[in-house]
Write a structure and sequence with these properties.
5 helices
Length: about 100
């Protein structure tokens, strides 16, 4: 039985590690405001948390303001820049349908 575990550890575990390494990491869309999003948002969570999320500009604004209320350090200009970035790259406009 010990030999079976040794074979598993030698043959399978490195392959599993290589597969995990081969996956490309999620990245934020490039554009104006990306640096501010990373600087402000990464203090509490991965900034890539927004990738795949679609919200209206009003929803993004409420989300960012709630993060500031919870302790994110951003002034009004940074909040506006973050909201503009999030809407431009991860926005949802119901009127566009």
């Amino acid at each position: 039985m010990i030999r079976l575990y040794a074979i598993f550890a030698v043959a399978v575990v490195p392959v599993m590690g290589a597969a995990a390494t081969a996956q490309s990491p999620v990245q934020l869309a490039a554009g104006p405001g990306q640096t501010t999003v990373v600087a402000v948002c990464s203090g509490c969570h991965a900034p890539t948390l927004v990738v795949g999320r679609r919200q209206t500009k009003v929803e993004w604004k409420k989300m960012v303001e709630s993060m500031v209320d919870r302790g994110a350090q951003a002034d009004d200009a940074q909040v506006a820049e973050i909201v503009d970035y999030l809407f431009a790259n991860y926005g949802y406009d119901p009127a566009a349908k």
